[in-house]
Amino acid sequence: MAEADAPQDAEPKKKSKLPLLIGLVLFLVMGGGGFYAMWSGLILAPANPDAAHADAAPEAAADFAFVPIPSVTISLGNPSDNKHLRFTAQLEVAKARSAAVEELMPRILDVLNGYMRAVEEADLQQPDALIRLRAQMLRRIQIVTGEGNVRDLLVTEFVLD
């Protein structure tokens, strides 16, 4: 009778990997389908496709003026090092608000001088320095001039010597 039972040394039956494989395939198909649905606008898209672009049209058609910021020269580090930063830019504003922004130019120059003097020379030499500085300066100018008055800051000269 002992011989009729299964031997104790036999290997246990291996589990099938088919459910895992099916799950992986379904995961990829569902992920791809979800991506396509979002990308094509099948779900979470505006009811009227033209309505999404209607907001951008008046802004593009609006008239803008450029208000120049006088050149600013700032000494960097020790005076004995004789290193300077020369900075020139223009502000993009609505034509109706250009006169009001020009009247605030002394405050704008004060804010820019204060900020640029606080920046370390090593920070100015990094590749992404201009992007970060531009964003910081624009935010400070927008605070001085009020929200909605200055649209953008366009740097026309940035010389470190």
Protein described:
The protein is α+β, with helices and mostly antiparallel strands and about 160 residues long. α5 packs antiparallel against α7. Strands 1-2-3 form a three-stranded antiparallel β-sheet. It folds into two domains: about 20-45; about 65-160, 2-Layer Sandwich (Tetrahydropterin Synthase, Chain A), CATH 3.30.479. It has helices at about 20-40, 50-55, 55-60, 100-105, 105-120, 120-125, 130-145, and strands at about 65-75, 85-95, 150-160. It contains seven helices and three strands. It starts with 17 loop residues before the first helix and ends with a strand. β1 (about 65-75) and β2 form a beta hairpin.
Topology:
Layout: H1 18-40, H2 49-54, H3 56-61, E1 64-76, E2 83-94, H4 98-103, H5 105-118, H6 121-124, H7 129-145, E3 150-160
Antiparallel strand pairs: 1-2, 2-3
Q: What is the tally of beta strands? A: 3
What order do the strands of the largest sheet run in, or round the barrel if closed? 1-2-3
Number of continuous helical runs? 7
Shape: elongated
